[in-house]
Amino acid sequence: MDTQLILAAFWFLFGIMSYRIVSYLMGYGRSVLIIQQTVVGMLLMLKYYDKVFQSEKEKILEKIKEDLPNATASHKLVDLSLEAWRFQSVRAIKNYLPQRLQHLADFKSWDEAMRYLHKIEKGLRNG
Hints:
Number of helices: 3
Order of helices and strands: HHH
Low-confidence stretches: none
Oligomer: single chain
Mean pLDDT: 83
Radius of gyration: 25 Å
Number of strands: 0
Distance between the termini: 57 Å
Number of domains: 1
Largest sheet: none
Strand content: under 5%
């Protein structure tokens, strides 16, 4: 009788521990999927806005020349603004992620982020 009680208690405790481990892993897996989808969505949005800015860049430069005819460094200033925006965008994505999930966004620059996005997009098309 005593061994059956001990065995039942053992299985009870083993079940509790198993439940906790499985629920933790499932929660972690769900978090990983949500974060990965969010990062890809943010990168897609930023890529779109970057393309819009690139296509409107000439119009912006023409407007600057109309407003300030003596401006000489406007092209460099627009390019610098774009690079600063790209840097801050990537940095904001990295800062958005929880510390334990930052490995999911394994990029440090705009070019690395676009390669990461291209790899994900290519996998979605082929998969």
